[in-house]
Amino acid sequence: MNLHLISRVKRCWLLPLLLLWTAVPLQAQEVYPSRAINLVIPLSAGSQVDVLGRALADSISKQAGHPVVVHNREGAGMVLGMDVVAKARPDGYTIAYGPESPLSQTPHLRSSVPYKTGDFDLICRTNIANMAVVVGPGSAFKRFEEMIAAARNAPGKLNYGTAGVGTPPHLLMEAIAAELGLQLNHVPFRSINDMVIQTLNSTVDFTVSVPNMVATHSARGMRALALTGTTGMAELPSVPLVREFINKDSPVANYGVGGYGFYGPKGLAPDAMAWLRKACKSAVESPDFVTASTRTLTPVGHADGLDFVGAMQAASRVSADIVRKLNLKLD
Length: 331
Fold this sequence. Notes:
This protein is of the alpha/beta class. The chain has helices spanning 3-28, 48-64, 79-86, 101-104, 106-109, 144-153, 168-180, 192-200, 212-217, 270-284, 287-295, 305-326; strands at residues 37-41, 68-72, 94-99, 120-129, 132-135, 159-162, 185-188, 206-209, 223-227, 258-265, 300-304. It folds into 2 domains: 37-129 and 258-326, D-Maltodextrin-Binding Protein, domain 2 (3-Layer(aba) Sandwich); 132-254, Periplasmic binding protein-like II (D-Maltodextrin-Binding Protein, domain 2, 3-Layer(aba) Sandwich), CATH 3.40.190. The longest helix is centred in the N-terminal third of the chain and has 26 residues, at 3-28. The model is unreliable at 1-27 (pLDDT under 50).
């Protein structure tokens, strides 16, 4: 065979191999993040979590040099949005932000949940999430103990509202009622706005919600009678803690002190995890996020790694204990 022809043939089959070899280093050199990050918030736009999530997204976007695109996927007690993330590729480009309850509580209440807590990697916690027992301006109750006394004197007469069956506020109040021997009527609301209106006009005797509800409507006379947590809030200095009225050894005393944070699919790429945790800490410390947290009465409480995982596991054990004692199942 002609030597020139042989040389041309060799070049023909060597060229694709050379292109392949040179492409491998180029792919390996891709640094996270190199494109937009999708942030799933499992609650509606304008909610407390949405306000906080968007403040964080703005900071993380600036750090990444790429957009952080927020997707509100509310529904089924936050299960729909979290399931999207559980089934996403663990490359760091689809993550969730929201309360820990879809992971620490919901699987104990519903056997039909399409994911397990183990289907997620915990990136970082940003806030401590307390709850509040709230009344409207026309309520006769000035103190939490007055409400307890009224419930004992008239079993089954008091109505309380929450954002839905199986939500953390619902589980909290049922646990308090069981602890104190109270009979209460639960009124689940599908619309937060409707719940606010019915609380303000005292159609329900009281509501269990997040402290932000008081912050938003205090000018209209909405008041908090009690807070969950182990320490009071500087913004609500005269409001007592639920744990002051129940057995301190009860799991209820430690319930309702959850957190908001970022979650990724299980097996999140190590480089993505490292970058996101560092970016999360910077975002939590940013002035805009601190302002948003203060405005919504959501204390900043950063944690990542083993601290975040440990807090989640502790919350899950408390929820499991309460669900078992109440014999409460939603399916």
